[in-house]
Design brief:
364 residues, 14 strands, EC 1.-.-.-, Oye-like, Aldolase_TIM, oxidoreductase activity, acting on the CH-CH group of donors, NAD or NADP as acceptor
Length: 364
């Protein structure tokens, strides 16, 4: 944990595992669905991330650790040799620009569709997510997932570790397990998506077991100092809820603490009355994203500085990074942030992806 003092700002260097970050600004993971067929990273993706290499740390969009773990069409993977090789251009471009980059490993669980993967989605229980999921032919109702048997759960936990090994082979500095926003790890943590009565459900120790096993396997595979996890207590995203979030996440942090992870990454999906005790309970590095991912407000400098004062070590920015590749300098100089149209987030192609520029000063 990097001790936050009165003089700590967004621009104070920080240690993260074996890395030295030049500032405390983290680019949060955001799906942009620009991968090529077969889940391959592309030259455009390399350019996109390299443009944002001034961040203290970049965390990529969600990367599926297995085919059944793919949530949306057009997303990249880390479970084949071709995918692994394709990421080298991304990590190489970021490192050439002086940056540091973690891959976010995202298993969609029940938030998927057979049209996307060719497989029935899996989950802790046979309960469909509410609403529609993206498919190659357009939005479709979320299907009923296959409830994993007790003996089948460890294979899904191990998929994160397998993908993490590939991430290091591809040149990433580390990985973040996506335990937030209603995807597979969050489904196991949930009190309404997980109705199991075996060792992976029911009580808090049961519901946190999958997360602990996935993180432990990943730490064993590549070293704990290269591993983080993202969490979103009781976010409600994709219908996932936790009726006992304070107790649940306190117990989860207690189980993760001995591993020596690089960080935990919390989204502000609950109020200070829940997050501040979790900050006190976690003695390691904590990243906080001050904005609810489904809310109308972006993370901004005011919210970031407030969380530094409250004890966060690093602050992540998501939507602000889409149209502001030079976000660090805009924040440093208090320059206005460029806006963007949400309609361009998932359209594919370079328009609305590589077309945002650094701040242009007007001539005197």
């Amino acid at each position: 944990m990097t001790t936050t003092t009165e003089t700590t700002t967004l621009f104070t260097p920080a240690k993260l595992g074996e890395l030295t970050l030049p500032n405390r600004i983290v680019m949060a993971p955001m799906s942009r669905v620009r991968a090529a067929a077969g889940g391959l990273a592309t030259p455009s993706m390399a350019a996109y991330y390299a443009q944002r290499a001034s961040a203290g740390l970049i965390i990529t969009e969600g990367v599926q650790p297995s085919l059944v773990g793919q949530s949306n069409p057009g997303t990249p993977g880390l479970h084949t040799d071709a995918q692994t090789e394709s990421w080298r251009q991304v990590t190489g471009a970021v490192h050439a620009n002086g940056g540091r980059i973690f891959a976010q490993l995202m298993h969609g669980g029940r938030v998927s569709h057979p049209e996307t993967t060719g497989h029935r989605p899996v989950g802790p229980s046979e309960i469909a997510a509410p609403g529609e999921v993206f498919t190659p032919s357009g939005p479709k109702p979320a299907p009923l997932p296959y409830a994993l048997g007790t003996a089948e759960v460890p294979e899904q936990a191990q998929s994160y570790a397998n993908a993490a090994r590939r991430a290091i082979m591809a040149g990433f500095d580390g990985v973040e397990l996506h335990g937030a926003n209603g995807y597979l790890i969050a489904q196991f943590l949930s009190s309404n998506a997980n109705l199991r009565t075996d060792r992976y459900g029911g009580s808090i120790p049961g519901r946190i077991r999958f997360a602990v096993e996935a993180v432990t396997a990943t730490a064993d595979a590549i070293g704990a100092a290269r591993v983080g996890i993202r969490l979103s207590p009781n976010s409600g995203i994709w219908g996932v809820e936790e009726t006992d979030a304070p107790e649940l996440y306190t117990a989860l942090l207690a189980e993760l603490a001995p591993l020596g992870l690089a960080y935990v990454h919390f989204e502000a999906t609950v109020g200070d009355e829940v997050l501040l005790p979790l900050r006190r309970a976690w003695r390691g590095t904590m990243i906080v994203n001050p904005a609810h991912p489904a809310g109308p407000r972006w993370s901004d400098r005011e919210a970031a500085e407030r969380w530094l004062e409250l004890g966060a070590d690093l602050i992540s920015f998501g939507r602000a990074y889409i149209s502001n590749p030079d976000l660090v300098e805009r924040l440093r100089q208090n320059l206005p942030l460029a806006g963007h149209d949400q309609d361009i987030w998932y359209t594919g192609g370079d328009a609305g992806y590589l077309t945002f520029t650094t701040y242009q000063h007007e001539a005197a």
